[in-house]
Design goal:
The chain is of the alpha+beta class. The protein is built from 8 helices and 8 strands, in the order H-H-H-H-H-H-E-E-E-E-E-H-H-E-E-E. Strands 1, 2, 3, 4, 5, 6, 7 and 8 form an 8-stranded mixed sheet that branches. The longest helix is centred in the N-terminal third of the chain and has 22 residues.
Length: 287
Amino acid sequence: MVDIPADAGKGFGAWETLHEAGNGAEFARQIEAAAGKYYGVPLRAFLAELVKCDRGQLNDWFRNTQVSFSEALPADVSGQARRVVSRFTLVALAGELATLWGVTGWQTGEARAAALACFSAWLDARGGAGKQEDTEAVELVRGFVQQNDAAFDLWHRVGDDHAPRSIKRAGMQRWLVPADGEPVEAGVKGWGGERAYVPVKTADDLPDMKERQDIRREYFFYREQWRDWVCKGRDAMAVAVALAEKGVLRRGDNKHLTRLVSIPGQGRMRVYHILSSLLDDDGEQEK
């Protein structure tokens, strides 16, 4: 099922233009009345012309229309989007043929433009031309970290008796300095009293952490929590694969979906390493 947004974005609900009607409701009544009066008439006229066409000619028309639709797609479009293109191509071709045969009274190109507008609306609503599952996976994990910030212990405050502790933990959260991507590690002086938390370089390189607005965050999910909490009810492996393909999950050695990481206070363990680009609007890999 291809879901197309009902709002045409012109301020008239599902309509782009009212054709001199006073409002959307009045135009809808006019459409309903015309449909009741002429129901089936255009289709019979269309089919009468269609059966006269050579199959090879129809195939050529379809391919040419499909090419013009495909030009609206990025080069890395998913197979899903390409399959949907075929449906909109058929709608556009039918409309253009109906116009050619004098059934619609429209100008040449209007049916194609309308079908292309609907296709573009569908593409925007699903988040682009990539695989829908990949987009949903990013939204799933992004939503989790946004709603469960307290479920992540702070990497740089392990061992700090005054640090907030998570009762139900999903993993660790590590802060990064955007300028160079340096992780924020435990320090020895400066912010926080006797035990401060500063970048691995020097305390002078980073102002008071509480005042910074440009800290980026990456996440290290424990495998059990990833499976039973974050991806509950879903295929946890498929979610991880989708995130890896989007470039927001850093794979381990030999292309493992988990990485062997030294977690502060816990030692080396396999975790799902989610990059800070997860929280970017487009969820694309950091450059």
